[in-house]
Design goal:
Layout: E1 11-13, E2 25-34, H1 38-45, E3 49-52, E4 60-68, H2 73-79, E5 85-93, E6 98-106, E7 112-119, H3 128-138, E8 145-159, E9 164-175, E10 180-183, E11 186-193, H4 200-207, H5 217-225, H6 235-244
Parallel strand pairs: 1-3
Antiparallel strand pairs: 2-7, 2-11, 3-8, 4-5, 4-8, 5-6, 6-7, 8-9, 9-10, 9-11
C-alpha cells in the first residue's frame, strides 16, 4: 500500500512548529484498526490536520529498546491495572538522528507523564548517569535489563489549532534475542491532548467503525514474545489484535 500518496494533501509543518504540542503531560486515547482502512481515513483527516515533515519525510522511523526487571515488574503492574506505573526505554528517532532515554508514567488521574534525557546512542546497558535519572523519576532502585525491541513507522499529525497531536503507527515489528514477530496488518492511532476535548479524529474514526481501545505495544509484544507470561487480563485485547492482524 502506497501510503505516501495519501499524505500529499496535508499541509506540512516542521519540528520547530511542534513546541506547543510536545504534551509531556497529557491524556492519551488509542485506536486499533486494520491497515486497509487507513487511506480513506487520511483523505478525510487532511482537512483538519497538518503533517510533520522531517528532512523531507512525512513518515518517520522509530526504534525503541524497552527495559524491565527480570520478573517483569512494569509489565505485571500494567497487567494488574496498577496506577502510577512506568515504562523505561531508549528511543531512536531515526530521521532526526536523535536518541533519548525515556520514562513514561501513567498516574492515578489517567494522565501520561513523559520525561526524557538526550543520549548519544542506544546501549544494552545503563550507565551510572542513566541509572540515577531512572531512580530519581521512579523512586526505586530497580535492576533493569533490556527486554525487547519495538520498531515502527509513524505519521504525526497536528490539528489546525495546535492543541492535539495524532500519531499513526504502522509496520510494527518486535523482537528479543530469540524471537521476532509483527503486527504489520494493523494500525495503532493515538490522540494526545492536554485535557479532554472534542477531537475531529474521534468523529471521523467512528464513521469507519473505529473506536477507542486501551492498548500497550509493550504489553502486547511481550505476550507474543513470551506466551507463557501471565496474561489473563489481556486476553480480549490479544484476541482483537490477532483478529485484526490475520
Amino acid at each position: 500500500m502506497d501510503i505516501i500518496s495519501y499524505l500529499k494533501d496535508f499541509k506540512k509543518i516542521h519540528l520547530t512548529d511542534m513546541k506547543s504540542v510536545e504534551l509531556m503531560n497529557r491524556i492519551d486515547k488509542k485506536f486499533v484498526f486494520k491497515s486497509e482502512k487507513l487511506p480513506k481515513l487520511l483523505n478525510e483527516l487532511s482537512k483538519f490536520y497538518n503533517i510533520l515533515e522531517v528532512n523531507g519525510n512525512t513518515i518517520q522511523e522509530y526504534k525503541s529498546l524497552y527495559y524491565d526487571t527480570e520478573d517483569r515488574t512494569f509489565f505485571l503492574k500494567h497487567h494488574n491495572e496498577r496506577v502510577n506505573r512506568y515504562k523505561v526505554r531508549f528511543r531512536e528517532y531515526v530521521g532526526s538522528n536523535l536518541f533519548f532515554l525515556e520514562i513514561k508514567c501513567k498516574n492515578n488521574k489517567g494522565k501520561t507523564l513523559k520525561k526524557r534525557i538526550k543520549v548519544e546512542e542506544i546501549n544494552k546497558s545503563l550507565n551510572p548517569k542513566q541509572l540515577d535519572y531512572i531512580r530519581e523519576n521512579i523512586g526505586n532502585d530497580l535492576n533493569l535489563t533490556p527486554k525487547q525491541w519495538i520498531n515502527f513507522n509513524r505519521i504525526t499529525l497536528v490539528d489546525k489549532s495546535f492543541s492535539e497531536r495524532l500519531t499513526i503507527d504502522l509496520n510494527l515489528t518486535f523482537s528479543n534475542e530469540v524471537k521476532s514477530d509483527n503486527f504489520n496488518k494493523i494500525v495503532i492511532a493515538e490522540i494526545k491532548k492536554e485535557q479532554h476535548m472534542v477531537s475531529k479524529f474521534v468523529r471521523i474514526a467512528k464513521k469507519h467503525n473505529i473506536y477507542p481501545t486501551r492498548l500497550s505495544k509493550y504489553c502486547m509484544s511481550t505476550i507474543k514474545l513470551e506466551p507463557r507470561i501471565k496474561q489473563n487480563r489481556f486476553k480480549k485485547k490479544l484476541l482483537l489484535i490477532n483478529k485484526l492482524n490475520s
